[in-house]
Amino acid sequence: MKWLGTLPLFVILLGIAVLSMYVPMLFAIRLEDWLVARTYFYYTTVLLIVLAMIAVATSGYVPRNTARNYLLTVFAALITIPAILALPFDRLVGSVNYFQAYFEMLSSLTTTGATLFSDPKSLSAPLHLMRALTGWLGGFLMLVVALSIFAPLNIGGFEMFVAEQSYKKSSLRFERADAAHRLTRYSLQIFPAYTLVTAVLAFVLLVSGDRSLVAVSHAMSILSTSGISPVGGLQGASSGFVGEMLMFLFLIFAVSRHTLLHDRDGQAWANLKNDKEIYLMLGCVVVIPVLLFLRHWTAAFEVEAHNDLPSAVSALWGSIFTVLSFLTTTGFESTAWGEARSWSGLGTTGIILMGLAIMGGGVATTAGGVKLLRIYALYKHGQREIARLSFPNSVGGSSSRARVIRREGAYVAWIFLMIFLLSLALIALALSLTGLSFQDSLVFAVAGLATTGPVVQVASDSGLGFAGVSDAAKGILCLAMVLGRLEALAVIALLNPNFWR
Hints:
By secondary structure, this protein is mostly helical. It is built from 23 helices and no strands. It has helices spanning 2-5, 9-20, 22-31, 34-58, 67-92, 98-109, 125-153, 167-176, 179-207, 212-224, 240-250, 268-273, 276-298, 309-327, 337-344, 349-359, 372-390, 400-432, 438-449, 455-459, 471-486, 488-494, 497-500. Helix 3 packs antiparallel against helix 7 (125-153), helix 5 runs antiparallel to helix 7 (125-153) and helix 6 packs parallel to helix 21.
C-alpha cells in the first residue's frame, strides 16, 4: 500500500478506472453472457499489465506537490479515462464507432448522462452497469477533487468564502497546500459514507420492487447526479411512487456538502441547519411547483384537465420531484411529470427545467451548474441594493462572513455567471455551425455545460437526441461537458501564465 502512495495521481486514477471494468465482467459471468465477459476480461487484463509497467517506470517520480499540478492531472484524467473505457464498449456495440463510444463514456464520467441510445434494449445489462458505475466513480472523483484541489485554489465555489483575502494570502495558502495529503484524507473520509449511502438507497429500491440492476443503477445515478438509467428513466422502473419518494430524500446529498462530509468540530447538524444552499433549494422546491399547480385555474379555459384530488396530488408531486431532480442536475423525470404539465397547462416547462439545471446544486457536491451558493450571493447583494434605494445611509447587519458573501462574494459570483453565460453562447454558436437550429443548439449547450444530459429530452421540441447530431457536434459537446464538470474558473487557472513559470 505504501508503494501506491509513491505513484503519480494520474496512474492511480487510470488504475482505478481499469479495475472498475472487472465489475461488468463479473456481472456478465453471472448472466452467462460470455462474449461480454471475455471482452472485458481481455481488455482489462492487458491494460492492467501496461499500467503496471508504467507504474514501475514512474514510481520514483516526485512531482511538485502543488494543487495546480493535481488540477492538470484531473483535467488529463477526464480526457484519458473515457478513451480507455471506450475500448471494450466500442468492441461490443457494433452500431457505434470508437468516437461515439468515447462520447458515451465521457458523458458518464462527467455525470452528464447524455446517451446515444434512446432504446435501453440496444445495450446489454453489463454495459448499462458500466455506464452507471462510471458515473458513480466520476461523482466520487469530483467530490474528492473539490475538497482537496478546488478548495486550496479558491475555485469551484470556495472563492465565495475567501473573496476578502488578498491575492498574496491566497497564493501562500495555495503553495502550502499539501494536495497529496488532502486527496488521501478526503478519499478515506468520503468513500465509506458515499458507498454506504448508495448501498442503502439500492437496498430500499430493491425492496420497493425494482430489479437488482435497476435499483443499483438508479442508486448510483442519484448519488452521482448522472441521471443514467438502464430502463430509460423512472417510467421503466417498478418501484413507482415509493421509489420516487426514496430517491427524492437522497437527492439532498447533491444540495449541501455538509451531508457527506462531517466536520471534526462536531457541528454537523448546525452546519446543515445554517446552510443557505438548503434554504434556497427548499424555496425552489416549494415556490415553483406551487406556481405550476396554481396555474391550473388560470389556464382552465385553455386546457382540459381533471379537478379530482388524485390528479391534483399526482401533478403536485410530479412537479416537486422533477424540480429537485433538475436542480441537482440529475435529470430524472417523475412518472407524474406528464400529469403535472397537463395540470398546469404550460407547454414550455422545458425552459423552467433548463433554468434549474443552470442553477445547479451545492458547492463541493456531485451536482454541476452555476451552484446555489453563487445564486444566493447574487440574491443577497440584490436585496441589499434594493434596500439602499430607500435607505442610502443604512448599515447592513449580519456576520462578517455574510457581509463578505454579500459584497465580494457577489462580485466573484457575477464574474463566474458572466463567464458561464459567455461559454454557453460560444458553445451554442459552435453547435449552430454544425447545422443545428438555434433552439437545439441552446438546449444541447445547456445540457453539456450544466452536465444534465436528460434536459434535451424535455426541453427540445424537435425530438432530436444526442444520436441525431453529427460527430463534429459531439466533439463540441465533449468540450462542453469537461468545461462544465471542471468549471470555467478551473480551466482559466490552468491557462494562468503563473502556472507555467
